[in-house]
Amino acid sequence: MTWTVLGGRSLEREAAAVATAAQDGDLPAARRRVRSLVGRDPSALEVDGLARACVESLAENTVDAVVAPLLWGAVAGLPGLLGHRAVNTLDAMVGHHSARYERYGWAAARLDDLAAWAPARVTVALTALETQLRTGAGREVLRAARRDGRAHPSPNAGPVEAAWATSLGLRLGGTNTYGDVVEDRGVLGDGPAPTPRDVQRAAALLRRVTWGALAVGVGLRVAVRPPR
Questions:
Q1: pTM of the full predicted structure?
Q2: What CA–CA distance (Å, rounded) separates 42 from 38?
Q3: What phi and psi values does residue 40 have, to the nearest 5 degrees?
Q4: CB neighbours of 135 closer than 8 A, spacing ≥ 6?
Q5: Rounded distance, CA 182 to CA 41, Å?
Q6: Is 176 helix (H, G, I), strand (E, B) or coil?
Q7: Which of 39, 85, 212, 223 has its CA 20 to 30 A from that of 62?
Q8: Which among 140, 173, 143 is positioned nearest to 158, based on CA atoms?
Q9: What is the domain extent for residue 93?
Q10: DSSP output for 178-192
Q11: Residue 18 and residue 215: Cα distance in Å, rounded?
Q12: Using an 8 Å Cβ cutoff, are 90 and 104 in contact?
């Protein structure tokens, strides 16, 4: 069941395919493929916009598809694994604003925010630790998560994307279009806009954070598991 609910490798594979198509100049293929990662309208995205979508998706979904299931599984076992996956999938299906599912979708989105609140903060902490070990800039990652994360409409994706932007030396956020809705997600980080080459760097960060989350999950499981 742990293998079933984890999605880190799938995230890497899809992001790499989008980045390769964009870098090769095949924008129609990249725009079609990026729909598997993001809910925004990709029809007007150019190369840098597609790269930003990939990096932001890797950051946000590291919480949803890696850190949160590992932590919920560690704390609550099988019900934690499957319960979190059900909540997150429900949010992905109906959590966006729509006339048909407005109130039901609101409840799904808020429940997903609650389930991911602690895992998102753990992801920020792991990103800061990884950056500190790699470049010595862990404090800057934490500072960016607090400073820039609040500009994002999501209480969980904002801090994580700001942390990743600073760790990778990039600038994320900006304006996204979801059907008829245009959403400003603030400016996250101080670096240049991502390019397709940065997607591989973001995937490497995902792998390092995954190992950290696995260590935290094993520690939690040992701590909460009752003695036989």
A1: 0.93
A2: 9
A3: -70, 160
A4: none
A5: 10
A6: strand
A7: 223
A8: 173
A9: 2-224
A10: ETTEEEEEEEE-SSP
A11: 30
A12: no
pLDDT tens across 37-68, in order? 998 889 989 999 999 999 999 999 999 999 99
73 vs 71: CA distance, rounded Å: 5
**Burial of 4: CB neighbours in 10 Å, binned 0-12, 13-18, 19+:** exposed
- Of 195, 126, 111, the C-alpha closest to 160 is 126
What is the number of other CB atoms lying within 10 angstroms of the CB of residue 80? 19
Number of domains in the chain: 1
10 Å CB burial of residue 195 (0-12, 13-18, 19+) is middle
pLDDT average, residue stretch 101-109: 86
Q: pLDDT tens-digit profile of 176-207?
A: 887 777 888 889 999 999 999 999 999 999 99
